[in-house]
């Protein structure tokens, strides 16, 4: 650890920053997963400064809502005026408004609420109602003031009177909401059946759809709050609407997959997933560099394929190859041992990165991988590893699987035949240049140890 900086005895100049200010008008969630708490976490994670006007105090947790108390309307208005009177608010999002009086209050202040994103919160993820029945009609006036309205399928059905059970119906509901006066509508597809989640953005200029694989989890508490807050913050930064929506949907997809296992209920989405992942890039890159140095020192020449060896490491919440650090140009054999062709950078690997990401689909704890050549001696040495070895036959790869998807197909095939997470995956396409062994590990030191174990045994 670096020693502390000693005081010079002089007064230091301040270095202020000016993030865009985002206001959330919503209810409080004592469980921390949704409402004001989720909004402020997300706004700050996306680079904004979060301010709030609390409409209602709820007693809730991951299992449901145990009670709620609406604040006096004058107190809600005082909060809105306090924020807009002092801060240069760049965007606003609404969540739980609870009654028609609160909705009308927001409409009265709409002229002072730029980039207004309306999340028409009606029912909690647990099924508890959060909006008085008489307030449903009042939403029409607020929608007419919205830059964007973000209902899920059930909320869109209430607002438009249209059953939203497929993407086509979602598009029609979005058009209905735009006709009601909204600048745009994002009809979320999480409640629409299907293997993929299709979110539909409708504006006067056209329709844009965003497709994501569905995550097999019930831990979606706070998902709507997180998405609308992220969009509002992106708009506050000056992003155009499709970019703001697309980036925010990507964030939410990761937040749902890497959800927070807290409480006795299904848990909550991970509001800070992107921030935590970005913070892990440097230590992940350093871990790969440490592995490369160790393998060079150990001279693992016998394990390096003719095409070179790739060592790769994924950030904790990596979803794409640009979140995987690897040796640029691979590690090559030389007359004097092995050496990396260039340094370590993110996005340097394709095949190994895709294989590593495919392994993480089965076990997200897996973060590091290295590819080795396949010989009879190396295959025999795999038996000395502490863990299972899975195999697949590349000759069985279906014709419709592209070359880009071959690594993922092989890993999926191997995991499907393995009892638990394998420490090594073998592609049996013959022995030598065309064969490969992929070593996997959750920890970089374990990865290096496995490589050295095979090298000693081969």
TrEMBL record:
Residues in Thiamine-phosphate synthase ThiN domain copies: 288-452
All residue ranges annotated as the Pyridoxamine kinase/Phosphomethylpyrimidine kinase domain in the record: 29-270
One example of a Gene Ontology biological process annotation: thiamine biosynthetic process
A Pfam family recorded for this sequence: ThiN
InterPro entries per the UniProt record, alphabetical: Aldolase_II/adducin_N_sf, HMP/HMP-P_kinase_dom, PM/HMP-P_kinase-1, Ribokinase-like, ThiN
Domain of life: Archaea
Keywords: ATP-binding, Kinase, Nucleotide-binding, Transferase
GO MF annotation list: ATP binding; hydroxymethylpyrimidine kinase activity; phosphomethylpyrimidine kinase activity
A GO cellular-component term linked to this record: cytosol
CDD domains: HMPP_kinase (cd01169)
NCBIfam families from the UniProt entry: HMP-P_kinase
Protein's name according to its UniProt entry: Phosphomethylpyrimidine kinase
Source organism of this protein record: Haloarcula hispanica N601
């Amino acid at each position: 650890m670096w020693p502390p900086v000693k005081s010079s005895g002089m007064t230091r100049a301040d270095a202020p920053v000016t993030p865009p200010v985002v206001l959330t008008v919503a209810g409080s969630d004592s469980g921390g997963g949704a409402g004001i708490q989720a909004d402020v976490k997300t706004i700050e994670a996306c680079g904004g400064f979060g301010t709030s006007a609390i409409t209602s105090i709820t007693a809730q947790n991951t299992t449901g809502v145990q009670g709620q108390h609406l604040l006096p309307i004058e107190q809600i208005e005082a909060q809105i005026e306090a924020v807009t009177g002092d801060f240069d608010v760049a965007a606003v999002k609404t969540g739980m408004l609870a009654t028609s009086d609160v909705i009308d209050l927001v409409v009265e202040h709409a002229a002072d609420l730029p980039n207004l994103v309306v999340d028409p919160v009606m029912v909690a993820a647990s099924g508890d109602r959060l909006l008085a029945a008489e307030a449903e009609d009042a939403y029409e006036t607020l929608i007419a003031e919205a830059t964007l309205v973000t209902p899920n399928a059930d909320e869109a059905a209430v607002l438009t009177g249209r059953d939203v059970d497929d993407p086509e119906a979602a598009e029609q509901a979005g058009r209905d909401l735009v006709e009601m006066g909204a600048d745009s509508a994002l009809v979320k597809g999480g409640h629409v059946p299907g293997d993929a989640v299709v979110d539909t953005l409708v504006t006067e200029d056209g329709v844009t759809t965003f497709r994501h694989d569905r995550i097999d989890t019930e831990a979606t508490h706070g998902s709507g709050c997180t998405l609308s807050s992220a969009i509002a913050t992106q708009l506050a930064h000056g992003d155009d609407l499709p970019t703001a929506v697309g980036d925010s949907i990507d964030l939410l997809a990761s937040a749902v997959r890497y959800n927070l296992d807290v409480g006795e209920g299904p848990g909550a989405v991970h509001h800070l997933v992107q921030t935590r992942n970005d913070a892990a890039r440097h230590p992940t890159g350093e871990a790969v560099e440490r592995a490369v140095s160790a393998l060079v020192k150990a001279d693992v020449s016998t394990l390096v394929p003719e095409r070179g060896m790739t060592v790769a490491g994924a950030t904790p919440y990596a979803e794409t190859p640009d979140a995987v650090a690897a040796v640029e140009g691979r590690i090559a054999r030389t007359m004097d041992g092995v050496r990396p062709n260039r340094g370590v950078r993110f996005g340097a690997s394709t095949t190994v990165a895709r294989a590593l990401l495919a392994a993480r689909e089965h076990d997200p704890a897996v973060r590091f991988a290295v590819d080795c050549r396949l010989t009879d001696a190396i295959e025999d040495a795999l038996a000395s590893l502490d863990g299972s070895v899975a195999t697949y036959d590349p000759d069985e790869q279906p014709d419709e699987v592209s070359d880009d998807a071959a690594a993922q197909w092989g890993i999926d095939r191997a995991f499907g035949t393995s009892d638990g997470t394998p420490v090594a995956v073998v592609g049996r396409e013959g022995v030598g240049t065309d064969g490969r062994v992929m070593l996997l590990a959750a920890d970089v030191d374990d990865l290096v140890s496995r490589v050295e174990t095979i090298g000693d045994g081969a």
